[in-house]
Amino acid sequence: LKQSFGTAWRKLISSKINPAEVSSTQKLCSDRKRFCTHWKNVGFCKGLFSSFMMENCQRSCKTCTDEYDDKYSK
Q1: Which DSSP symbol is given to 57?
Q2: What pLDDT is stored for residue 64 in this prediction?
Q3: Cβ atoms 37, 31 nearer than 8 A
Q4: Distances (CA, A) of 13 to 24, 25, 39
Q5: How many Cβ atoms sit within 10 Å of the Cβ of residue 45?
Q6: Neighbours of 36 (CB within 10 A)
Q7: Cα–Cα distance for residue pair 47/64, rounded to 1 Å
Q8: How far is the C-alpha of 20 from the C-alpha of 45, rounded, in Å?
Q9: Where does the ShKT domain lie (predicted)?
Q10: Which residues contact 68 (CB under 8 A, 6 or more apart)?
Q11: From 40, 49, 53, 66, which residue has the greatest number of CB atoms within 10 Å?
Q12: In the beta sheet, which residues pair with residue 57?
């Protein structure tokens, strides 16, 4: 396990991803509430609760920006 972690860590630190950029982008596209996935599955992304969901459950409701999707969803 230690060896595979070390290999993964070396790949991460040598990658071209700017950690500050990733963390700020993830903040923009994240679920702030722990039940977002469940609420999405019961249809809350649309209708009466859509305003709350768009603010608090962006990742589950897939309302993230195209820039986020292009960079980090692949």
Answers
A1: B
A2: 87
A3: yes
A4: 18, 18, 36
A5: 20
A6: 20
A7: 19
A8: 29
A9: 29-64
A10: 25, 28, 29
A11: 53
A12: 31
Which tokens is 58 given? 């962006």
Q: Are the beta carbons of 53 and 44 closer than 8 angstroms?
A: yes
Q: What is the pLDDT along the chain (74 residues), one digit of tens a residue?
A: 555 655 655 655 555 545 454 444 445 689 999 999 999 999 999 999 999 999 999 999 999 875 544 455 54
Q: Give the per-residue pLDDT at 67.
A: 54
Question: For residues 40 and 14, what is the distance between their CA atoms, to the nearest angstrom?
Answer: 37
Element (H, E) at 30: none
By CB atoms closer than 10 A (0-12, 13-18, 19+), residue 53 is buried
Please name which of 39, 22, 70 lies closest in space to residue 58, comparing C-alpha atoms: 39
Q: Which two tokens stand for residue 4?
A: 């595979």
